[in-house]
């Protein structure tokens, strides 16, 4: 893997698991559609995860605990590969760490979803993610500080994947499939002049 995988200790506000899996033998990643009942990011595509608790030992524990709560995947069955560098949220009020973990062969229909947090779960195959026909990019501009940045968007699946989830997917593809995937993102955001 590329150097974006890190084991350094970091102060973060939240952690997510990037659940690498196979679905009917096809290498994929599991994504969730957040419940419409949630206060923030309702109805958006995300990875399982959430805020770090005082009882969590580290970001890995946070990501595994939240995944078990949201999808019913036991922590003990996840083979943790490492974590990505922290990413600031869109308001730059906290950072989120993505933990890479292999959950093995999965039948999404048999997962025990928490209806309070998750409306649906769906796999997205790596072949789909790597297909340029499904990749787009959008430029976002923050009004309050005149900051702009480009982020990836994936189309062609059951739901559009964008935002922080797409940025994390971009990092995963850079790390795991650099020979087949080219990002337009840079390691640091650039301020408009």
TrEMBL record:
Keywords: Hydrolase, Magnesium, Manganese, Metal-binding. Coiled coil: none annotated. It holds the Pfam family NUDIX. Its cofactor is Mn(2+); Mg(2+). Residues 7-148 form the Nudix hydrolase domain. GO terms for molecular function: coenzyme A diphosphatase activity; magnesium ion binding; manganese ion binding. The keyword Hydrolase applies. GO terms for biological process: nucleoside diphosphate metabolic process. The keyword Nucleus does not apply. This is Nudix hydrolase domain-containing protein.
